[in-house]
Design goal:
mainly alpha; two-stranded parallel ribbon; 7 helices; Rossmann fold; globular; single chain
């Protein structure tokens, strides 16, 4: 959450001449409701089912950049679909940077808690090893501007192609 997946992903898609998809936005467009309402009505389990279906569908497309929610990797089928469909990029940042980037965003249901720092730390403790194992490219975004991160990632992707 807050690492820049959508912002950077959209620009990388433009650089590659690919279509861009964000799995969370796809879910919102298809359901007609925001992610927090899905969490409220269906719980995280209901949201994760929807997420798995979207990732399964989108990962079959060619020439796309797909930004997924950070929790998508918790599902083994999602990990397999992502790994089999192309290059997986992990944009990572430190807790302080992530908190700063997400502080005012009410569209982050998992962070709507009394102690967002503690929740974010727990999330990263669980997910970080999965992200690192799954990723073909790891980019530390920390204090990077979006422009600098995009330029760095363009170079890393170009070397992979």
């Amino acid at each position: 959450m807050g690492a820049g997946k959508t912002t950077i992903g959209r620009q990388i898609a433009r650089f590659l001449g690919f279509d861009f998809f964000d799995s969370d936005r796809e879910i919102e467009q298809r359901t007609g409701v925001a992610i927090p309402l899905i969490f409220e009505l269906e719980g995280e389990e209901g949201f994760r089912r929807r997420e798995k279906d979207i990732i399964s569908e989108l990962s079959k497309k060619s020439n796309i950049v797909l930004a997924t929610g950070g929790g998508a990797v918790l599902n083994k089928e999602n990990r397999q679909a992502l790994k089999n469909s192309g290059t997986v990029v992990y944009l990572c940042a430190g807790i302080d940077d992530l908190l700063e980037r997400t502080a005012k965003d009410k569209n982050r249901p998992l962070l709507q808690t009394a102690d967002p720092r503690k929740k974010l730390q727990a999330i990263l403790t669980e997910r970080e090893p999965i992200y690192r194992k799954l990723a073909d490219i790891i980019l530390e975004t920390n204090k990077m501007t979006v422009h600098a991160a995009v330029k760095e990632l363009e170079g890393l992707i170009s070397r992979k192609l």
